[in-house]
Amino acid sequence: MKRLFAKDLAIDLGTANTLIYEKSRGIVLNEPSMVALKVVGGKRLPVAYGAQAKAMLGKTPEGVEVIRPVRTGVIADFEVASLMLRHFISRVRALSWAMIKPRVMIGVPCGITEVEKRAIREAVQDQAREVRLIDEAMAAAIGCELPITEATGNLVIDIGGGTTDIAVISLKDVVYSVSVRQGGDALDEAIINFIRRKHHLLIGEATAERIKKTVGTAHAAHDDEVIEVRGRSLTLGAPATIVVSGAEMREAMSEVLSQIVLAVRQALEHTPPELSGDIINRGIALAGGGALVRGLDRRISEELEVEVTVPADPLAVVAQGAGRCLDSGDVFSDIWI
């Protein structure tokens, strides 16, 4: 009966987005990890979740705030994270007509503490009959269809909103891994600071993200593209409009991207020689939302002299990889935490 009615779920609880994979169906939910709350009588009551909450970012009236309960890959606000996950899982279960609580597998950054693992488990335990955790880099490698079960070296880079996970994997185990507290959010913050410093214009998170997606680049090949940006002038105190180029955004994001490339270089330095040869032959898999920054694969490839490939949907590979563990439990049963 459990096999017939239970719909097992894999969740990528990301700093920027939450994705849910339902067994045998694929990705069934992809929403920003945000909740809009209104304070009534000293209590915080949810107003909107996901995309609806993100649309309110920076535009809320007094008494309403938009919360991002996940920071740098771990839960920063347990109460709000529980509300968000309960809402998302309920939406998915309502569509699948599931009668029994599902087993849930959640991707977590490498190197998180036992306290942080416990917080993630407790956030979904009332919506699941069993909670399992899987290393996000391992899930990304499975989602990128790397041969992790073979005696060969595989290097995957998963650039999320709050963290960048880098792992060398062989024989279904992690040979070396490191998690850098730099990701898409750090790039947005770098853009905000650059425009404030150089153009004396104040912009919000949503505008910085739009700039990053439109003209943000890690390579000089996209320097000539431009975008019009609106914000508040720090000198006049009034609304103002400027034009910024891809070259400026490459300069703005350079420090954060350099730290990521340095972490990848260090991972290669800690890799055994035999596995290094495999990585040179097979290349590096670049996943996560940060992989969408134009020219980043080319920059990493040129600096490290190793081929870099990006999957068709880099944002979804962690959820897809965790989902494949659910679909093929006999093959990957020794991988999850």
How would you describe the overall organization of this protein?
The protein has 337 residues and is an alpha+beta fold. The protein has two domains: 2-33 and 68-138 and 318-332, 2-Layer Sandwich (Nucleotidyltransferase, domain 5); 150-310, 2-Layer Sandwich (Nucleotidyltransferase, domain 5). The protein has twelve helices and 18 strands. Helix 6 packs across helix 7. The longest helix is centred in the last third of the chain and has 24 residues, at 246-269. The chain is flat and about 65 Å long. The mean pLDDT is 89.
Structural topology:
Elements: H1 2-5, E1 9-13, E2 17-22, E3 26-32, E4 35-40, E5 43-49, H2 50-55, E6 64-67, E7 70-71, E8 74-75, H3 78-96, E9 103-108, H4 114-124, E10 130-135, H5 136-143, E11 154-159, E12 164-170, E13 173-180, H6 184-199, E14 201-202, H7 205-215, E15 226-233, E16 239-245, H8 246-269, H9 273-282, E17 284-287, H10 296-304, E18 308-309, H11 317-327, H12 329-332
Parallel strand pairs: 1-9, 9-10, 11-17, 17-18
Antiparallel strand pairs: 1-2, 2-3, 4-5, 4-6, 7-8, 11-12, 12-13, 14-15, 15-16
